[in-house]
Write a structure and sequence with these properties.
By secondary structure, the protein is α/β, with parallel strands linked by helices. The protein is built from 16 helices and 19 strands. The protein has a seven-stranded mixed beta sheet. Strands 9-2-1-13-19 form a five-stranded parallel beta sheet, with helices on one face.
Length: 496
């Protein structure tokens, strides 16, 4: 039986572990933290339960497929509910717009803006759905081991059909004229850490996926998906070793032989790294000849990283009725985004709020609410902020004042019972993310598809990768696809 070591019990590591174990491999997962999950982590404090990283469940079929592939019923492991409305968007303290997956409600809301924009919105959905089907069939689920997998007439023709050369904002502007509606259809590029004003227009598929497939909620919070995957993996005979920091991927004669931890060498036939790809290249592989073309110089200086996040986790001693997901846009959204990608902490930031206790009493004490407040901030690639205690306090106070301008949230500071703060430095140290870039490598055109790090090592036999910095990209469902691609690539080379 072939031995596989997976580095990291994050989303892709757990998903790949399940698939490999079900196929007959002997799989062992090594995780540096005291809990599983990677960025799908959890904070518990005084009865409040906070998801640390991802919170929005899209493409539920990808979540289910991990369990179905192992012969299990996903509903035996976790439950999902469709959210209605999907979210509420606050354009200022008093003007709010609800986004519904109910077509009748959605059209009514759109027509309140204008009949022209309602028509444009539907035209946008039809256009981007067609492009999504092309991307799904020809690119998202396909590995690119060699140049000819991408540079061939069929693939290049399909790539042209995607029309990715303009930005997400430019693409949306063809269909809708209301600026607030344009914002509502482009901010989702920030889910993968790229600007809507420069990110490829293909990322307009994200709001389309939300609208057509829904935004869902996993009972108990997103962390329950990690718990469910770990449970299924261990049922199949897999082994998870926590607080096991991998120090090196050991390579001999251009072939993986195992890993080195503080406790010593562990032999393996296959190593699948779920550590973030740039960090793995910079820290786990020691010789440049085994890294090429991703040497230390390239990964740290020439690659482009996503934005990062500043997150407040707030437990309140009272309830504040709202939707599970809501957003507040900066008055000057364009300047906010430009600052973000010019490595300036925005003066007037947009932010996202998540409050699962609105529908799930298990995540907060009775009569109380928990809030997760995410503020996009620059990564630390160019060192615009050191995230000193003073900078953290200043940013925190600014966000609290902005939240208090939203109707119903006045004077929330008086009601904060529990508070935790994560900064880019937290994401760098806890999850080994280069420069604290929460979403890994930015999905620019030059870092997408064939040009993004692939599942199979170019130089080392038996070494594979999965995660948000690898093809096809960031976001939980896409990372789950990266795990499936990596497993299929392993099967091309080795049998259990």
């Amino acid at each position: 039986m072939a031995k596989v070591i997976v580095i990291g019990a994050g989303t892709a590591g757990l998903a790949a572990g399940i698939r490999l174990q079900a196929l007959g491999f002997d799989v062992e997962i090594h995780e540096k933290n005291p809990k599983i999950g990677g960025r799908m982590y959890q904070i518990e404090d005084k009865g409040f339960v906070f998801d640390v990283g991802p919170t929005i469940v899209m493409m539920p079929q990808e979540y289910d497929d991990v369990f179905l592939a192992s012969g299990a019923n996903p509903r035996d492991y976790f439950s999902m509910d469709l959210l209605e409305p999907m979210n509420t968007i606050h354009f200022d303290g008093h003007h709010a717009f609800e986004i519904s997956t109910n077509l009748t409600k959605l059209i009514k809301g759109l027509e309140s803006i204008s009949d022209r924009d309602a028509h444009g919105y539907l035209a946008y959905l039809a256009d981007v759905y067609k492009r999504y089907l092309i991307a799904k069939e020809h690119f998202i689920e396909k590995p690119f081991r060699k140049a000819s997998d991408f540079f061939n007439p069929k693939s290049l023709y399909q790539a042209l059909r995607l029309r990715t050369l303009n930005s997400a904002y430019q693409s949306i502007s063809r269909f809708v004229k209301d600026d607030n509606l344009r914002k509502a259809l482009t901010f989702q590029t920030l889910y993968v850490g790229v600007s809507p004003f420069s990110g490829p227009s293909i990322y307009t598929i994200i709001p389309m996926i939300e609208l057509l497939y829904g935004v869902w909620y996993i009972k108990g919070g997103m962390y329950q998906m990690a718990v469910a995957m770990a449970k299924r993996f261990e049922e199949l005979g897999g082994k998870i070793i926590l607080e096991s920091q991998v120090e090196e991927i050991v390579i001999e004669s251009n072939r993986v032989t195992g890993i080195m931890t503080k406790k010593g060498f562990i032999k393996a036939d296959v190593v699948l790294s779920n550590a973030d790809f740039p960090w793995a290249m910079n820290h786990l592989i020691k010789e440049d000849k085994h890294k090429k073309p991703y040497t230390l110089k390239k990964t740290t200086q020439k690659m482009t990283y996503s934005s990062s996040t500043f997150i407040l986790y707030l437990g309140l001693d009272k309830k504040i009725p709202t939707t599970v997901h809501s957003l507040r846009f900066a008055k000057d959204f364009r300047k906010n985004i430009d600052d973000l990608f010019a490595f300036n902490v925005p003066d007037d930031p947009s932010f996202y709020m998540y409050s699962p206790s609105q529908i799930d009493p298990s995540v907060a004490p009775e009569g109380k609410d928990g809030f997760y407040v995410l503020v996009p901030v620059p990564s630390m690639q160019k060192g615009s902020a050191s995230w000193s205690q003073e900078e953290i306090r200043t940013t925190r106070d600014k966000i609290i004042r902005m939240i208090e301008k939203i109707d119903g949230f006045e004077e929330i500071e008086k009601h904060i019972e529990v508070e935790h703060i994560y900064t880019p430095k937290t994401f760098e140290s806890m999850f080994n993310l280069q420069f604290g870039a929460t979403f890994g490598l930015q999905p620019t055109l030059s870092q997408s598809l064939y040009f993004r790090p692939q599942a199979t090592s170019k130089k080392v036999k038996g070494l594979y990768f999965a995660g948000s910095s690898n093809h096809p990209g960031a976001g939980v469902p896409i990372v789950l696809i990266s795990a499936r691609i990596a497993v299929n690539e392993i099967l091309r080379d080795i049998r259990p």
